[in-house]
Amino acid sequence: MCGIVGYVGNKNAQDFLISGLKRLEYRGYDSAGIVTLDVKGEPTLLRAKGKIANLEEKLAANKRDDTIGIGHTRWATHGEPSEENAHPHRAGEIFLVHNGIIENYKELKEHLTEHDFKSQTDTEVLAALINSFYKDGKYSLINAVVQALKLVKGTYGIAVVSCKKPDEIVVARSGSPLVIGIGHDETMIASDASALLGHTKQAIYLNDGEVALVTSNSVEVKTLNAEPVSAKVEEIETNLAAIQKGGYEHFLLKEIMEQPESLKETLRGRVNLEEGTVRLGGPGIPEAELRQIKHLVIVGCGTAYHAGLLASYYIEQFTPEITVETVIASEYRYRNAYIPENSVALIVSQSGETADTLACLREIKKQGVKTIGIVNAIGSTIAREVDGGTYVHVGPEISVASTKAFTSQVIAMVMFGLTIAQAKGVKPAILKPYVKEIAKLPEAIHDTLENAKGEVEEIAKKYVDYEHAIYLGRDTAYPTAMEGALKLKEISYVDANAYAFGELKHGPLALIDDRFFEIALVPKGELYEKAASNVQEVLARNGHMIVVTNVEQFDLPVERVIRISDEIEHFAPLLMNLISQLFAYYTTVAKGYNVDQPRNLAKSVTVE
Ligand code: F6R
């Protein structure tokens, strides 16, 4: 989604802004722009539709040695992707970049008749509104911003500069992240700390409702009600290597292959193999309270939702007298659902910034329900607003399609379930096999990826011309199939859907023909025979089926069988999901599409 950068200091601002915007490219965008000011406040505004390379072309003819400026990558919400709609937007002497959505922009616009609007954006309305307070000199830049923001409904992370003050940037946030990087005689701002790496490790994370006046050697933070805030300077935890491709052609493949290591990070210090127990410090729920838990609500979007769904199957397997409901955040936030007593809500989000998930968190908190974050991005909004949490610690996920986060989210939630089961006194004999498998998973993931890579690449090339795919699974393999279908559709644009095997004859079976191929996830276990019968049903209709299984003697006449090791039993679907991830990756490479930045999508969805 949109990205913000800003610089004030003693170095070349254009250089910082362009390199910072490139770091934020992974979030997804369709236009970009920067403005810098010279010492007299003379602005150089450059904007371009499409990739940052287009902006760089313009920059080549407009190089300046200005030392202050702001920049933006835009992911269109109001108005198509175009140069006019790209940020920064100008009103009078001020320039503004903005992430988020100004919900009451139409109403505000009606009163801003003096401004000659050039774009269709809500952002230009905010620029004009700030300027209406600023232009007569009655308010300083920061106070004009504050006056304007008091009238705004919606979400924002903003950065503003004024030609009259070419040594200060004003930033503010409500619902959209903003980080201020503290350097030596230079201060940088960004919507994501990755843009600051290599420049500084010291940062202030702005909170909702805060506004800051930033110069090259000072940062003053206050609330919109003018109360001063003593902001905490924190260490940025990510490093540069984590956001580089490290020899891989695409971030997606790097992140798929990183899973043995990233899962080890999730497990570090949390698994006691000898005792067969897990220990999570973050949630901070006393044992007596854990014993009382009767109901879990798991909230997420997209892949995070699928992770929650899969985890719910496991938690119900080993925790007595508990119900688990996994919900899609964008639906749940408007459902007015009653959450019974003795419930805990797990809020699942890689980025920790997803607008719908954040809205659910706030709704759930209003009901007095304890909220636990299953989050990756350290210091993100969700991580800060939950009552307690478990970071998954997989490191930055740059590719838009989520992979390593999924695996670790599932295991982190399973560990939370085990923590409840332990407190409720479930026999170690029941829980130990799960714990043992969790400890074995990083190695099994490593082996599965290494063994399957070549084969999956070859199969993906063979099926590359199909436009429709059906993923099938039962029990824990069903949410896994859903995740597989999502991965394929979002990066290769193959129309992929998942069905529970048992649902086939209630409708989807009618689809089977030569335009479709099917990927069935068939783990061993109690339901194997049933899944095998479902496979037969598809074969009887001449389906083109690929089966992923850990059953050694799988001998049905399907087109391809991808065998994975049977040493992992309960969590075999997680290994099968690696096959789906590789399949989506190699299909997309074979089609020649942009693997890491699929069309129309953004990494962190900070608008509703
Ligand atoms: C799919 C994908 C998305 C995200 C979803 C939630 O590959 O990446 O479906 O899972 O947008 O994002 P987070 O986890 O950041 O809340």
Structural summary, described in words:
The protein has 608 residues and is an alpha/beta fold. The protein folds into 3 domains: 3-242, 4-Layer Sandwich (Glutamine Phosphoribosylpyrophosphate, subunit 1, domain 1), CATH 3.60.20; 245-426, Glucose-6-phosphate isomerase like protein, domain 1 (Rossmann fold, 3-Layer(aba) Sandwich); 451-593, Rossmann fold, CATH 3.40.50.10490. 35% of the residues lie in helices and 23% in strands. It contains 17 helices and 27 strands. It has an 8-stranded antiparallel β-sheet, covered by helices on one side.
State the gist of this model.
The protein is an alpha/beta fold.
Report the CATH superfamily of the largest domain.
Answer: Aminohydrolase, N-terminal nucleophile (Ntn) domain
Please tell me the CATH architecture of the largest domain by its name.
Answer: 4-Layer Sandwich
Give me the number of helical elements: 17
**Helicity, as a percent range:** 25-40%
Major sheet summary line:
8 strands, antiparallel
- CATH topology label of the largest domain: Glutamine Phosphoribosylpyrophosphate, subunit 1, domain 1
Global mean pLDDT: 95
Radius of gyration: 25 Å
What is the molecular shape? globular
Q: Can you tell me the CATH class of the largest domain?
A: Alpha Beta
Gap between N and C termini, in Å? 12 Å
Structural class: alpha/beta
How many β strands by DSSP? 27
Strand content: 15-25%
Number of domains: 3
Identify every distinct bound molecule in the structure, by name, code or SMILES: fructose -6-phosphate
* Order of strands across the main sheet: 3-2-4-1-10-9-11-15
Query: Could you name the ranges where pLDDT drops below 50 across 5 or more consecutive residues?
Result: none
